[in-house]
Amino acid sequence: MDTVNLPFRCLAVQGVSRGGVASHVHEVGQLIYLRRGAMLCQSETMRWLMAAGQVGWIPAGMAHSAEPLAELAGVTAYADSAAYPDLPAEARVVPAGGMMGMLLERQLSYEAEPWRGRRQRLAGVIVDELLQLAPLPQQLPLPAERRLRALCRRVLADLGRGWLLDELAAAHGFSRASLTRAFARETGVSFGNWLGQARLLEAVRLLSGGAAVGETALQVGYQSLSAFGAAFRRHLGMAPGEFQRAQARA
């Protein structure tokens, strides 16, 4: 859906698109609320993951691909920035708990009604709620520089490995110091912080698909369950098992 006739439109999300959706662009911004399932999205500069009980925002004009990781159910909404100029300029994931998921479900139930009235009013409330919610740490910046891009692809393909900065620097034509500077300049974070975030995003993906907590910890490079649990809780506010149970209830 590239355009909408109204400033805010909702559609039901149901099922799964086999093989995902190749890179595409919307002329308006898109909200995706997942009641069930999980989805991995990627743009030129970022990778992010949405799980059940969360809402993803993709701004207008951002080329992105989408890969459903499980059967999906929820609501997608399209919002025109001409009508809502304060919409975020960057992609983000926010919690749907509390009001956001309920508001989008209610807005979907109003779709057959005239625009002016409670449908228009509720759309404004949804946009305000999106702006108020703090983004979850589920985005991973991707560098544009060719060598750094290749380095990141290599690391993402084997997150269970104990990657060493000196080894990566030598393999991709950097000194340790120049890699450290270039990586921070391109992504805004240190390589160590980026690697930790990449591991946690992959852990969320695996847990959303039903993988065991211990197996997940090993696959993303943690030799200790306690270290994995502490990192997961620090970034997502709950233990891996709690997250998985919440996904099952969603």
TrEMBL record:
Residues 149-246 form the HTH araC/xylS-type domain. The keyword Isomerase does not apply. The keyword Transcription applies. It comes from the Bacteria. GO terms for molecular function: DNA-binding transcription factor activity; sequence-specific DNA binding. Transmembrane segments: none annotated. Gene3D superfamilies: Homeodomain-like, Jelly Rolls. Keywords: DNA-binding, Transcription, Transcription regulation. InterPro entries: Homeodomain-like_sf, HTH_AraC, HTH_AraC-typ_CS, RmlC-like_jellyroll, RmlC_Cupin_sf, Tscrpt_reg_AraC-type_HTH. This is HTH araC/xylS-type domain-containing protein. It comes from Chromobacterium vaccinii.
